[in-house]
Design brief:
Blueprint: E1 9-13, H1 16-27, E2 30-37, E3 42-49, E4 52-59, E5 83-87, H2 91-100, E6 107-112, E7 117-123, E8 129-135
């Protein structure tokens, strides 16, 4: 087996239409495809920006996840996926752009010298954490 890249990152959302609008308006994602699996009560969408692809999934009656209201470090009290990290050229400029769009910064900008990055975290409308990472040369 030879792995070459990540194809997509999947998120369960409460309202697919709301999430499509948010990811488009806030982060610039475009909708690639949408489909339903009616017998399972599921709606899907693939969205992308550049080479980054997310799969958004809406399931009727899906409960909020345990990390929905936890802070960045509190979310680590349970196992499982915690956030997706997106590379940006300038984390300070990203923070300013997000604030201009009315997005609250959950944590950061913050220096992580152990791995040579600056980062910040936000939440999408469903509480999923998104990290923005500026890598130092």
């Amino acid at each position: 087996m030879k792995l070459s890249s990540i194809h997509h990152f999947a998120l369960v959302v409460a309202d697919l239409d709301r999430s499509l609008a948010w990811y488009g308006d806030v982060l610039g994602f475009a909708t690639e495809a949408q489909w339903d699996v009616a017998e399972a009560g599921l709606r899907f969408a693939h969205i992308h920006v550049g080479d980054i692809r997310f799969e958004l999934m809406e399931r009727e009656g899906a409960a909020a996840g345990p990390d929905e209201s936890a802070d960045v470090f509190g979310a680590l009290a349970t196992r499982g996926a915690k956030h997706v990290g997106l590379h940006v050229d300038n984390v300070e400029a990203t923070a300013a752009e997000l604030r201009d769009k009315g997005i609250d910064i959950l944590f950061g900008p913050n220096e992580v010298p152990q791995v040579g990055v600056r980062n910040l975290f936000i939440r999408d409308p469903d509480g999923n954490q998104i990290e923005f990472v500026e890598v130092h040369p």
